């Protein structure tokens, strides 16, 4: 691997840092912490104004034509600044799929509103009995004349309470193997019969259960061919794996080191040693993310490398957030705003949230399956 980032990417890093220092204020962070909604419309629209929401897209489609290096820098800096980015990343996962598989009408009516920062999309894939294996989805879509009637329930539809559309995975055929009877729809969240209920997770993040009771949509809401929804899902899933998971750990190490220096506890060998171990893993995690970006730059699909980066980084975050809480002591468990809390409650927050990160965007076991089967050529488990 060539470890050198591009000159363009590094000059861009300074620009992103300046921008985030201005827009990711303490007030924004506090609101995210209080509501669990990892999205800020002000930040989102300011990014849209700079064409950063779809920066990897060609200029003719409203992007900036950036390569994986530049995108990696943007993601790294967003994570390092603790910027709320769920709205943007979920929206772009769906929008990339619509860009590839949607109708001309969908592209015309949805994409410009996404790129201008006007609307968000969310992902309605997981169900109570279909998470890792989302192709087992049971939410039913049945044809009725020129429209479709949808009935069922989705679990973990994050950002549905802010989104204009759910990018919904449905079952349209029960007579064929599960991957072949699925169809995707773009369902407006103001359609009668659509309801949601908030779910607050261990990590503090708010997500939703979404319910579909005789939700009627026209055939023009269908994305891709009937019963070929899995082809559309595969496109979407290839955009779900980010490359910057390591930046969470890097941010924690930076805050841990600042705490240790400010309190003088950096002099204690056990504190220094634990910080050094965390810093070493953070470096490995960042390099795995950069390796994945570099593989993408070389024109290959970096699914195995992205899985390596996600698996190592999210599991290292669990280990080190626990170790740092251990080193700091009970006050590390106080939340932001509570008297005596340390580093704005960042350690406490990371301790809770790290576990959740090993689940979404593919659990650790699913990442191991990808690495062993596609990377190492081992048989299916
Ligand atoms: C905070 C949060 C936000 C989310 N946001 C969204 C969203 O916006 N949209 C959406 O559609 N979904 C979302 N999800 C759902 C997420 O994708 C699923 O939780 C995840 O895929 C795991 O599915 P599950 O929870 O049903 O667990 P299960 O799939 O039931 O897994 C349970 C356990 O079994 C293991 N396991 C499962 N299959 C295998 C296998 N083949 N081999 C080995 N081990 C296996 C898993 O690793 C896990 O440990 C979100 C989840 C969380 C926690």
Task: Give a structural overview.
- With 381 residues, the chain is an alpha+beta fold.
- It has 3 domains: 7-84, Acyl-CoA dehydrogenase/oxidase, N-terminal domain (Butyryl-Coa Dehydrogenase, subunit A, domain 1, Orthogonal Bundle), CATH 1.10.540.10; 121-237, Butyryl-CoA Dehydrogenase, subunit A, domain 2 (Beta Barrel), CATH 2.40.110; 246-375, Up-down Bundle (Butyryl-CoA Dehydrogenase, subunit A, domain 3), CATH 1.20.140.
- It is built from 12 helices and 8 strands.
- The model has no long low-confidence stretch (mean pLDDT 93).
How would you spell out the order of helices and strands? HHHHHHEEEEEEEEHHHHHH
- Which hetero ligands occur in this complex? flavin-adenine dinucleotide
Strand order of the largest sheet: 1-4-5-8
Average pLDDT number = 93
Structure annotation, total helices? 12
Largest beta sheet, briefly?
4 strands, mixed
By CATH, the superfamily of the largest domain comes out as: Butyryl-CoA Dehydrogenase, subunit A, domain 3
Number of domains: 3
Radius of gyration: 21 Å
* CATH hierarchy class name of the largest domain: Mainly Alpha
Question: What fold name stands as the CATH topology of the largest domain?
Answer: Butyryl-CoA Dehydrogenase, subunit A, domain 3
What percentage of the residues does DSSP assign to strands (E)?
5-15%
| Architecture per CATH nomenclature, i.e. the level-2 architecture of the largest domain | Up-down Bundle
DSSP E strands, number:
8
Uncertain runs = none
Q: Specify the overall morphology.
A: globular
Helix/strand class: alpha+beta
How much helical structure, as a percent, in the residues?
A: 40-55%
Spatial separation of the terminal alpha carbons = 31 Å
């Amino acid at each position: 691997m060539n470890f050198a980032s591009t000159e363009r990417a590094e000059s861009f890093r300074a620009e992103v840092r300046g921008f985030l220092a201005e827009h990711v204020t303490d007030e924004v962070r506090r609101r995210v912490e209080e509501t669990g909604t990892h999205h800020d419309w002000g930040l989102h629209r300011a990014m849209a104004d700079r064409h950063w929401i779809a920066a990897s897209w060609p200029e003719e489609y409203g992007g900036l034509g950036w390569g994986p290096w530049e995108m990696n820098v943007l993601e790294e800096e967003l994570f390092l600044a603790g910027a709320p980015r769920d709205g943007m990343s979920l929206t772009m996962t769906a929008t990339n799929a619509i860009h590839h598989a949607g109708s001309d009408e969908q592209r015309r009516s949805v994409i410009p509103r996404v790129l201008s920062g006007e609307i968000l999309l969310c992902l309605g894939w997981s169900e109570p009995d279909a998470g890792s294996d989302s192709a087992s989805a049971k939410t039913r879509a049945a044809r009725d004349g020129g429209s479709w009637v949808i009935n069922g329930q989705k679990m973990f539809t994050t950002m549905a309470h802010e989104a204009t559309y759910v990018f919904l995975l449905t079952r349209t055929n029960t007579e064929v193997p599960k991957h072949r009877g699925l169809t995707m729809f773009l369902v407006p969240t103001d359609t009668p019969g659509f309801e949601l209920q908030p779910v607050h997770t261990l990590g503090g993040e708010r997500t939703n259960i979404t319910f579909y009771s005789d939700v009627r949509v026209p055939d023009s809401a269908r994305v891709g061919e009937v019963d070929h929804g899995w082809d559309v899902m595969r496109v979407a899933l290839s955009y779900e794996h980010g490359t910057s998971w390591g930046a969470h750990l890097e941010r924690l190490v930076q805050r841990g080191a600042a705490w240790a220096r400010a309190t003088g506890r950096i002099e204690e060998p056990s504190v220094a040693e634990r910080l050094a171990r965390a810093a070493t893993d953070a470096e490995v995690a960042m390099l795995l993310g950069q390796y994945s970006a570099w593989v993408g730059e070389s024109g290959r699909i970096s699914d195995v490398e992205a899985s390596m980066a996600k698996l190592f980084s999210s599991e290292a975050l669990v280990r080190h957030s626990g170790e740092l809480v251990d080193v700091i002591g009970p006050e590390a468990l106080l939340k932001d705003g509570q008297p005596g809390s340390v580093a704005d409650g960042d350690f406490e927050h990371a301790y809770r949230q790290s576990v959740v990160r090993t689940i979404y965007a593919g659990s650790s076991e699913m990442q191991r399956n990808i690495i062993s089967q596609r990377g190492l050529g081992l048989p299916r488990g």
